[in-house]
Each structure stands twice: as structure tokens, then as C-alpha cells.
Specification:
about 25% helix; alpha+beta; disordered N terminus; 10 strands; ten-stranded antiparallel sheet; 8 helices
Length: about 400
């Protein structure tokens, strides 16, 4: 009898232990598809690893009517979201059949771009306090005006100016300008099609950065075309892959070192980065940009100081301060909150996907030469009267003015 009692107690103890293990197992993994990230890497540095993105859309500059406000109300956010959805759903091509605007509109925002819900903050810019870009220096304003004057000269014989579309603002309809046979006054890194010259196709650089699949830039604050960052760390190095734009991703390697920047003679597309740790924050100093890029008017003299801070297991704060005394009258700062993504539910595709093999560019240039020959033989219109980029189309999803413009910009 005693033996049976002992055996029964033993079986009961095993059952209790198994039950406890079964109850504890789900708790340990509850709500997690993978283990929570460690606060430190194996070699003792703050852990920034993971796939990160923004959950909300926030305008870079504060809209004028919210001049003294840092945050939207919940009612304002809902109303703006509804209005943006209404405008994006419109088929505005129906009034422009057969025009350059019709062709541009085929690049539908509903298909090619992503639009997120509006965030709480009225601007990404946190300094200056008004949430606006600083004024340009006279030097930068002159460069901007020279580029715009050249672009308007190329546009003046096209339907964009004939129909007085917003892309021709400041210009007028006139016969073809001889300036179409001149090279741009500055490297075409900004303007139509992110750097295009509207209707000049004498070489690939005339087509601008976006058509050459070079639209990715640093700093990158995200946008409607997609934005994911994959951070991978190793001793002395932080690597970030920017899956940005429409397949225009790029790999960035940040040395964590006390070594100085490269010689000022060495200019790079995304500058030269040097990182160091200040407590839990990775501070990255970036210089040595090429004059072939343009960041809100700044070119080779752009200087950025970035601060990457892991706030908690799911959140990272990114703060960047931009300085260029040849472009802006003062430095300015952006703050961005990034959210950790599930490594299993998300994938980063590192191969270029803008236009594979760059076959689009030979086609654009060959088409331009065919137009030249047709016009010379009296079989087609003067190419100077055609607009091939930045023609006031609807690729961005919003009109440039009026009730069909982005409600944040009205």
C-alpha cells in the first residue's frame, strides 16, 4: 500500500512539472516571432541591428497654416488622411489624353508609391523652431535661379508653357530657345525628373538622376517611394543597407574609428562617414560629398552629423543636423523615429530594381536621335517643342496647385 502511494505521488509530481512547463513555454515567447534584441552586441557596443522603417508620413517642412504648432490634433490627422486618399484616387488623366501629362500620369501613384497615415508631428524639421528650411545664401539662390532659368528656356516652346501649366511658372510660351544646344549651367542634379533637362537628351546625364536610377541620397528621411534600413554591426563597423526609392537601394559602411576623414580631394556620392559612440548613441560625421548630388541646394560642401539612438527594443531615434555655410544661413536639424520590423516577415532585396541592366537609358537616347532624324526629314515635330521629363504630369499623385494638390501643401 505504501509503495503504491509513493508511486502515485511520483506520477503526480511529474504531471505537475509537465503542466508547469507547458504553461510557462507560451509566456516566454508570447507576442514574439523571435527573441528580443540584446541591449549590447557580443563585443559590448549598443545594439542597433535589425530592419527599421517609419510608421507614419510627416512633411519635411511645417505647412504654413500650422506655423506655431509642433503637433496635429487627432481630428486634423484623420481629416488630412481622408483628403489625401480622395485626391490620390482621382483619375486626372482624363482631361489630358494624348499629352505629355497623360503619359506622365501613366506612372500611377496608386501603383508605384506608398502613402502612409499622417504622423503627429507637423514637420520632420525640429530646428529652426518654425519647422522650415533656413533661407538660402545669395550664392545658393543664384545657382538655383540659374538652373531654373535654363530649364524654363528649354520648356518655353512646349505645351507646358503654351497651356500655362504650373511647371512653367515664371516662364512664357515662345519659339525654341538656342539654349537647348547649351549644356546646363550646373550639373543636373536637381529640377525636372530629379535632375533632367526637360527635353535635352544629348547624353545620359541630360536625363537626370532619377532616370539614371541614382535617386538614392544621404541623408534619407523616407518618403512615398518606400524606405527600409537594415543595420548590421561588426567590431569597428556599422553597415546600413538603404532599401529606398523604387529599387535604388545602396550599401553604406560606417567605420567606427578615430581615423580622420579622407582627403578633401576624394569626393563620394554619399560622402565619407566616420562614427564614434557617445554612450548609447552612434554619432556619425559625414563630409566629402560630390558636387554631382544636390540636397536641398547643398552640394559638395554639405556636412552632416547624425545621431542614432536605440530608445527601446522596438524604437530607434535618428537625428541629423545639416550644415553648409555656402547654401543655408544656418544649420538645421531633422528628427525621425524608426520602428523595428520582424526579420521573418520582412525581406530586404539588395539587387537594383530601378530598370534592370539600365536598358531604359539606351532606349531614351535612341528615341531622341530618332526624333531628331524625323524632324530633319520633315516627318515629325521639332524636338524642342516636346517635353520628356518634368512636364507637369501626375506621377507624384498630387496636382501642383488647387483642390487636387496635397492638402499639406495648399
Amino acid at each position: 500500500m505504501k509503495r503504491r502511494l509513493i508511486e502515485s505521488i511520483g506520477v503526480l509530481a511529474v504531471l505537475v512539472a509537465v503542466t508547469m512547463l507547458l504553461e510557462l513555454a507560451p509566456v516566454a515567447g508570447q507576442g514574439q516571432s523571435e527573441p528580443a534584441p540584446a541591449a549590447l552586441t557580443a563585443w559590448g557596443e549598443p545594439n542597433l541591428e535589425g530592419i527599421w522603417t517609419t510608421d507614419y508620413q510627416t512633411p519635411l517642412e511645417r505647412p504654413a497654416r500650422y506655423a506655431d504648432r509642433e503637433f496635429f490634433t487627432e481630428e486634423e490627422r484623420a481629416a488630412i488622411d481622408n483628403e489625401r486618399a480622395r485626391v490620390l484616387a482621382l483619375d486626372r488623366r482624363r482631361d489630358a489624353r494624348g499629352s505629355e501629362q497623360d503619359v506622365g500620369g501613366a506612372y500611377s501613384a496608386a501603383i508605384f508609391l506608398s502613402h502612409k497615415h499622417l504622423g503627429r508631428r507637423t514637420s520632420l524639421i525640429v530646428d529652426p523652431p518654425n519647422g522650415r528650411l533656413p533661407e538660402l545664401t545669395p550664392e545658393a539662390a543664384q545657382r538655383r535661379d540659374e538652373i531654373r532659368e535654363y530649364q524654363l528656356a528649354l520648356l518655353q516652346a512646349t505645351n507646358v508653357c503654351k497651356d500655362n501649366l504650373p511647371a512653367c511658372a515664371g516662364g512664357e510660351y515662345a519659339p525654341p530657345s538656342p539654349r537647348r544646344f547649351e549644356p546646363p549651367p550646373h550639373y543636373p542634379a536637381t529640377g525636372a525628373a530629379a535632375g533632367g533637362s526637360f527635353n535635352r537628351s544629348d547624353g545620359p546625364e541630360d536625363r537626370g538622376l532619377s532616370e539614371r536610377c541614382l535617386g538614392a541620397r544621404l541623408p534619407d528621411f523616407g518618403g512615398a517611394a518606400g524606405f527600409f534600413l537594415q543595420v548590421v554591426q561588426a567590431p569597428g563597423t556599422v553597415s546600413i543597407f538603404y532599401d529606398t526609392g523604387q529599387g535604388q537601394g545602396w550599401q553604406r559602411v560606417i567605420p567606427v574609428t578615430e581615423r580622420p576623414h579622407l582627403s578633401s580631394d576624394v569626393r563620394q556620392w554619399w560622402g565619407d562617414s566616420r562614427g564614434h559612440w557617445e554612450g548609447n548613441t552612434l554619432v556619425v560625421d559625414v563630409t566629402n560629398f560630390t558636387p554631382k548630388t544636390d540636397f536641398h541646394g547643398s552640394r559638395e560642401n554639405l556636412h552632416i552629423v547624425e545621431r542614432w539612438t536605440r530608445i527601446d527594443a522596438e524604437t530607434m531615434e535618428y537625428v541629423a543636423t545639416m550644415e553648409d555655410p555656402t547654401t543655408w544661413v544656418r544649420p538645421w536639424t531633422v528628427a525621425l523615429e524608426l520602428s523595428l520590423q520582424d526579420n521573418r516577415a520582412n525581406r530586404i532585396y539588395k539587387e537594383p530594381r530601378c530598370h534592370e541592366g539600365n536598358y531604359g537609358m539606351p532606349g531614351l537616347l535612341a528615341g531622341a536621335r530618332a526624333d531628331d532624324r524625323a524632324f530633319a526629314e520633315g516627318r515629325g515635330p521639332d524636338p524642342a517643342t516636346l517635353c520628356t521629363a518634368g512636364c507637369g504630369g501626375f506621377a507624384a499623385g498630387f496636382a501642383e496647385s488647387g483642390d487636387e494638390a496635397d492638402p499639406l501643401q495648399r
